[in-house]
Write a structure and sequence with these properties.
mainly alpha
Length: 306
């Protein structure tokens, strides 16, 4: 009986991978539509440069952190699940979640208090008018950094529970909000409406993740500060090597943007458009495979099932 069960599990994972790939592809299609809509409304202009810089600052670090916390948390979660007869010791996991939320709060506060310094660091060549707009938009979207930090925790929980669909809706939801905001509100309120649409999209994804994990959140997730717990220290040890690669990728993107900021108005926008297209294959298919197979592989490793 064991072999058929294994095959069924593999088939289920493969189906999940296809579903997640489809959602990722839909999200990327909407992302390209979003890019076309923004280009249609604003063109490749200094306004879009300001928006791109302001969008990058609150999102790039939380997005990388979400990947790291998910990659580090899932194996430890599965190991605890296996060793404790399907009962997870949540105190260590809750400490990791509390730590993540505190980091998100701190990062959002830095964005809100020092937007000018951050914009100067990542796009020093912006003209004064574009710089001031980027600073204002960064302050508006600072709330989004905190929301993304919360979403990182909720996404890690969803992945560990193999609820991939809800976690994979993020790009679909956010891009839909941005497209709607660009078409409906931007003609009235300008680029500020675009920034608010991004934050609203992040908040909508939070609602989806909370609703999909509501029972577990009420039952098990609490603030905790048990810094010595192995379920906190274990993922933290795994996260440090991931920081090296993530910082390298982040630095490469920032250096590209620094050079683009010294070029003609709209250069950062063009760079953003090109990057979106270039990353489509990896983010659609590679992300889906990693997302769906990783928890099952972690569970088998924890069970000693080679």
């Amino acid at each position: 009986m064991t072999q058929p069960l294994v095959k069924i599990g593999q088939r289920s994972i493969a189906v999940s991978a296809v579903v997640v790939s489809t959602l990722n592809l839909l999200g990327k299609v909407l992302g390209m539509v979003k890019t076309l809509v923004i280009a249609w409304v604003f063109g490749a202009s200094g306004v879009v440069d300001a928006f791109m810089v302001a969008y990058m600052l609150p999102t790039v670090l939380p997005t990388i952190f979400k990947s790291m916390i998910t990659t580090a948390f899932v194996p430890q979660f599965m190991r605890s699940l296996s060793q404790n007869q399907h009962r997870v010791h949540w105190r260590g996991a809750n400490t990791l979640f509390t730590f993540s939320c505190l980091l998100a709060i701190g990062f959002a506060a830095v964005l809100a208090l020092f937007p000018g310094a951050l914009v100067t660091a990542v796009a020093p060549g912006l003209p004064e008018k574009t710089f001031q707009l980027a600073t204002s938009l960064t302050r508006i979207m600072a709330t989004g950094a905190f929301i993304l930090g919360v979403n990182a925790v909720l996404t890690a929980i969803a992945y560990a529970r193999q609820r991939f669909v809800f976690a994979s809706l993020e790009s679909v939801v956010v891009n839909s909000f941005v497209i709607a905001g660009c078409l409906v509100f931007v003609p009235i309120y300008g680029v500020v409406a675009l920034a608010l649409s991004v934050v609203a999209g992040f908040a909508a994804q939070t609602v989806i993740l909370v609703a999909s994990n509501w029972g577990l959140l009420c039952r098990a997730v609490r603030p905790a500060f048990d810094w010595r717990h192995e379920d906190f220290r274990g993922p933290l040890r795994h996260m440090f090597p991931l920081v090296v690669g993530s910082v390298g990728a982040l630095a490469l993107g920032i250096v590209d943007q620094i050079f683009a900021s010294y070029l003609d108005a709209g250069s950062i926008a063009v760079l953003g458009y090109a990057t979106t297209l270039a990353l489509v294959p990896m983010e659609v298919f590679g992300h889906a495979i990693r997302t769906t197979f990783y928890p099952a592989l972690s569970k088998n490793h924890a069970d000693g099932n080679r």
